[in-house]
Write a structure and sequence with these properties.
- The protein has 409 residues and is α/β, with parallel strands linked by helices.
- It has 2 domains: 159 residues, Lyase, Ornithine Decarboxylase, Chain A, domain 1 (Beta Barrel); 223 residues, TIM Barrel.
- Helices cover 29% and strands 24% of the residues.
- It has a 9-stranded mixed beta sheet. The protein has an 8-stranded parallel barrel with strand order 4-5-6-7-8-10-11-12, surrounded by 5 helices.
- A hairpin with a 2-residue loop joins strand 1 and strand 2.
- Helix 7 runs parallel beside helix 8 and helix 11 crosses helix 12.
- The radius of gyration is 24 Å and the shape is elongated.
Length: 409
């Protein structure tokens, strides 16, 4: 099938980041990704390792491409994912891989083959119980391997991890197992993005109290890597950097404390789609399911092929703004599964085929991830992670470079 955009046959136009071919796209700036890695490196210094968090397909940015970019020039020292399946989907880039989801008895039988693969490939598995220590040790011993593991310690978030009062038993259990190598000890902060909250300091104190005795080389001949700081703690609490920090949201250019911090992080993602069609309607015309918006005057309406199936939240109905030709335009009527309608009174020049920006890569934009998160009553993480698979991810900088190289050659 050939698509036509503004009368141009797509066989003559490559699918690059700067050409509208009729499909919504996420423009992923790997230049911005590299910039953010540099900002985070400057914040933590050269002696602290950076673990880039790539779970949930790198927060919707495309984990495979992000991993390759970070591996070039060693912009990160390790990669972290949530699940074994996510780890298996990563390309081989020569960086250590950490799997955060705890290994527990309920998974061992059902995921034996995946756990064996993890042990074979040297991924670091997370343990939170004595039972898990025994399970992974038996699997490793059966494969004649030594499994890399880390112990997660619950210091107050009460989500996952071994209680800090029971942590010594689990850690010592790992050290007693010849088939296990203690690679790390870590905890997770509940309120690190609140600079004035006392809970983070208390969690850090409890973590140090449990782990300070393990800072020297253990029986395996290695010292476990201690890590507690996420992006927020990496930026706000230098004394909590320890051996490694885990940077997720900051790597993608979003400040967990909000857009007005003065830091130089650059958003990596921009979500665009074509203006599919334009129509003129009379005053009093109602729009969309439930007819929740009525034109206050004669006006033009535009149709954009994005909806809640793509992650553009239904709660944006009659509230969100998009950017067309550099001008903000209102989303009117309800967001439906595959389409939204925008009112073009503020953009009289808008025509079918024009690019519509649904998620802007500028922090101050009314279509920024900060603005959309506020409208949706949520956080930037969720906005990113909800963007669906049918929205094509395009590595904008790499495509632009290829286009320029073809033109020059």
């Amino acid at each position: 099938m050939c698509y036509v955009a503004n009368g141009v046959d797509d066989k003559d136009v490559r699918m690059d980041a700067h050409t509208t071919l009729g499909e919504p796209r996420l423009l992923i700036s790997h230049e911005a990704l590299r910039h953010n890695a540099g900002v985070l490196r400057a914040a933590v210094g050269d002696s602290v390792r950076i673990c880039a968090v790539l779970k949930a397909d790198a927060y919707g940015h495309g984990a495979a491409a992000v991993a390759k970019t970070l591996a070039r020039g060693r912009l990160a020292d390790a990669l972290a994912v949530a699940t074994l399946d996510e780890a298996a989907a990563l390309p081989e880039v020569g960086l250590p891989v950490i799997v955060f989801r705890p290994v527990e008895n309920v998974y061992v039988g059902r995921q034996r083959s995946q756990l064996e693969e993890a042990i074979e490939r040297g991924w670091t598995l997370t343990l939170c119980s004595a039972a898990a220590v025994g399970d992974v040790a038996r699997l490793a011993q059966a494969r004649d391997k030594r499994a890399s593991v880390q112990v997660k310690i619950d210091t107050g978030m009460s989500r996952s991890g071994v209680d800090d009062c029971d942590a010594h038993g689990v850690i010592e259990g790992v050290l007693r197992q010849p088939a296990l190598r203690l690679g790390g000890l870590y905890t997770h902060f509940a309120c690190a993005d609140d600079e004035d909250d006392v809970a983070t300091g208390e969690q850090f104190r409890r973590f140090c109290e449990v782990t300070d005795g393990y800072v020297e080389a253990n029986r395996s001949g290695r010292r476990p890597i201690r890590h507690a700081a996420n992006t927020a703690a990496s930026l706000l609490h230098p004394h909590m950097h320890m051996d490694m920090v885990r940077t997720g949201l900051g790597m993608y250019g979003i400040d967990p404390m909000g857009p007005a911090t003065g830091r130089t992080l650059k958003p990596v993602m921009k979500w665009v789609a074509p203006l599919l069609m334009v129509r003129t309607v009379r005053k009093g015309t109602s729009v969309g399911y439930g007819l929740t918006w009525t034109a206050p005057r004669d006006t033009r309406l535009g149709l954009v092929p994005v909806g809640y199936a793509d992650g553009y939240l239904r709660s944006f109905s009659n509230r969100a703004k998009v950017i067309i030709n550099g001008v903000a335009a209102n989303v009117v009527g309800r967001v439906s599964m595959d389409l939204i309608t925008v009112e073009l009174g503020s953009v009289p020049s808008a025509q079918p085929g024009d690019e519509v920006t649904l998620l802007e890569d500028e922090a101050a934009s009314p279509a920024s991830v900060y603005a959309l998160a506020e409208l949706g009553g949520t956080i930037p993480y969720e906005i990113f992670c909800r963007i669906g698979a049918r929205v094509h991810r395009v590595a904008v900088d790499e495509v632009a470079a290829e286009v320029e190289e073809r033109a020059a050659g």
